[in-house]
Amino acid sequence: MTPTVVSATSSSAFLALVPHLLECTPRESLVLVPFAESRSLGAMRVDLPAADDASANESVASTVIGMACKVARTDAVAIVVYADEVLADLPAAPHRALVDAAMGRAEICGLRVVDALVVGSDGWDSYVSPSSSMPHPLSDLATHTLAEPTGPVVDDQFAAAELPPLDAAVSRRVMTDLRAIERVLGGPQERRKLPLLKRAATGDPATVALADPPVLIEDALATPPEELDPAQLAALAFCLARPSLRDVALMQWVADLATGDAVLQAQTAFHRGKPFPDDLARPMWGEGALPDPDRLRRALELCRRVASVLPRERRPGPLSACAWLAWATGRSSHALLYAETALEIDPDHGLGALMLDIIDAGRLPEWVFERSTSRAGTGSSREYPGP
Fold this sequence. Notes:
alpha+beta, Cytidine Deaminase, domain 2, about 45% helix
């Protein structure tokens, strides 16, 4: 939810902007855009329920409006349905019951409905002021251009979660280095061996990289993922496959190198019987101050890179980290795919199962709802006065 000034003076201009808010062109989705004084605060997407399921329509409407109410300063919403149907073949706009339920819930909560629109496979229309004949053509949306550049827009809500293709040559080199690390650090005593590496001389670069895990993690984040060498990728794969070191990485990416050092020390103390500090654990549950969104995105791309260079059976660790990072940035659809894939490979994977439970419960991090008032959102935002 990092806003940019882009004027939308019509429904078609607004619809042209929605994919840029989501960074994808959604399918079979209900999208809700919260506003504060005609300025958008980002966008939320959920899967469409079955059109004839009245209970599901009410539940989804209540959930999305409730989420909008949690976004600071929200005073209005726009509703967009993305459906695969051919609108011209239908007697009325699809999913009307869902939209009516959302509009009713918005009214109860004191939120003005800026617009309510539907995009089908052949055109778009309005629930508020429907076209008297054919739907408006999709070509209307292509005529609008953004005044300021935004990130890439992928084909649908799932495309961005696909891993890069496996590079067999790089994968072989990474696995060679990873096996070398495991020969030195494998087994039940590996946690105790890690600090000794700071004093031990070893010629293996992948093992040397693990002498100070927080430094490894921070250096990797500062490097474009495609430029990481096999030794770094192998060392990261080793960390992400082990819960203690994986949590060091996640909490460090939420904050900074000093936090990574603190979490590593706390993990060591915890395994000696000392309680884990609450302030270091809270971000894992989405509680606390807003992390730097760009830092989390770079961490997600880093973990995607690690997963992509590993054979399938080695991927649950980085995939579950991807799930957490996607969830931490408000991308529950992507988080679900990563978690499900991790559990397909290893049904007993702890973080994968935890992420699935969190997503199924509809929980999002507290900071997702604070972005509009964060330093990332103190600038201008997308403006839309309504139709």
